[in-house]
Fold Phosphoribosylformylglycinamidine cyclo-ligase.
Amino acid sequence: MISYKDSGVNIEEGYKSVQLIKEYAGKTMTDLVLNGIGSFAGMVELPKGYNEPVLVSGTDGVGTKLEIAFKTKKYDTVGIDCVAMCVNDILCHGAKPLFFLDYIACGKLDANVSADLVKGVSEGCIKCGAALIGGETAEMPGFYGEGEYDIAGFTVGIVEKSKIIDGKNVQDGDIIIGLKSSGIHSNGYSLVRKLVKDYNVEFNGKTLGEHLLTPTKIYVKPILNLLEKYEIKAMSHITGGGFIENIPRMLPKGKTAVIDINSYERNEIYDYLISLGADEKHMYNTFNMGIGFVICIDKGIKNQVMDSLRESGEESYEIGYITSGEEGICLK
């Protein structure tokens, strides 16, 4: 007789994984969560105080950055990336994350590895104030190679309808503030993996692998803090497509962002990639180039906004301004 385990699926390892994951999920629970991990679905009530609440959702994964985790056997940070990629996106419309769900797929389940992945997800949720209310772990032998995992996530946030940020108030003369990234974040790793052959090479006091696994910065709390005090007209999360694709997404038709690429100090990891052969010009259409999130504001509140960001521990720069035009973005 052939059992499910004989086919490559270890139910007992799955039970162990769930028990380990519950501990991390429990750390993220908020007063809005109505049930715990283990139900068929997670339940969250809407917070009070909204007149016209709008739910804002987003989903994303970590991408090929995962291969570096596989090869260095360090799995506890990519879960943060998974959360960041989702919550930073909905933040662009002014939404506060309420809850998060994750999906992990693998060829052969190792409960300790899956727990490390969810440990990162838990940490990311704590950083943005979202509750990890559920998820799925799928063991698929023969589909994924042994030791290979994929992780993706889904988040739902909330914003008052009258406070949705959509760029409609952007005007000529508004300025663009860039918030420093923590590194490459979670985009462009197919190019990184083509350029980098040894993750154990030392670079600025760490291995290259450690630098490349630096998790994506989560901007939720400092930005929500800003929104309580100032008008932010538009926001963009700098992900795949870099400056070229993402900054125009926050602007209304007929407006162009003029960006001074020399207005800030980019991460040294990008210069290292250039030394390995990366095309610098095209990198602005691939990576965040040291700026992970941008906001558009009236120039009259520049000092207050940058002071607030500094008080929140964020390093920011004035990197550009808005003018009329159909280009969407102009790098100089």
Summary: The chain has two domains: 11-163, 174-331.
